Known about the structure:
This is DUF4783 domain-containing protein. The protein is α+β, with helices and mostly antiparallel strands.
Amino acid sequence: xxxxxxxxxxxxxxxxxxxxxxxxxxxxxxxxxxxxxxxxxxxxxxxxxxxxxxxxxxxxxxxxxxxxxxxxxxxxxxxxxxxxxxxxxxxxxxxxxxxxxxxxxxxxxxxxxxxxxxxxxxxxxxxx
Length: 128
């Protein structure tokens, strides 16, 4: 009985803390799923793609990112850095590979508890 309880506890702990919003977003990017990505958008987003940056509405950012991901379809993603220890702030850096180039995508999210919204997305060439 103790053994079963221990296994159940470890499994629940991993499910609760093993995955986070950065992992979810990495999977969304890997699938090129702009529709799901847009569900994470805040009302306005600071968007920077190759040194062209501005603050856009969620709808504008959706169109701009849809164009980027259509031109650069994903082949793989890899999380290289994430900050998930703060209850109100999450940050991640994901290497995004496509047949047309490799990119470094930085994501900043703000929120409370389990509801986080993307406030900043930066896409730069990955020079590594």
